[in-house]
Amino acid sequence: MSAAKKSGRLPYGWIILVLVIVLLFTKNPSEQQFTTYLKDRIEKQAKGDETLTGDLTRLFSGPAASLAGLGTVRKDYFLCSTYELDLPGQEHLFLGIFDNFIKLR
To answer: What is the pTM of this model?
Structure first.
């Protein structure tokens, strides 16, 4: 009788796993979201800098992020993505997951 009960139960673990996979798939950030993230990050670094340099940084943060986005290599793994950003003398690697970005190096 216990075997019959077990077969009639819903496999909640599998349902949760499928839901997490679907959520990861739908929340995989796009290249446009990465460009917006770069723009926000540049603006955040210039925040509080009331000099001419800070003003120029805030003014050109959008075009700078767009240019940096052009040099970005995105590898899409469907559930997450990696973004390689090569700047002169620097390499950056970001993980995009759940509509967020994590700097790995």
So the answer is: 0.74
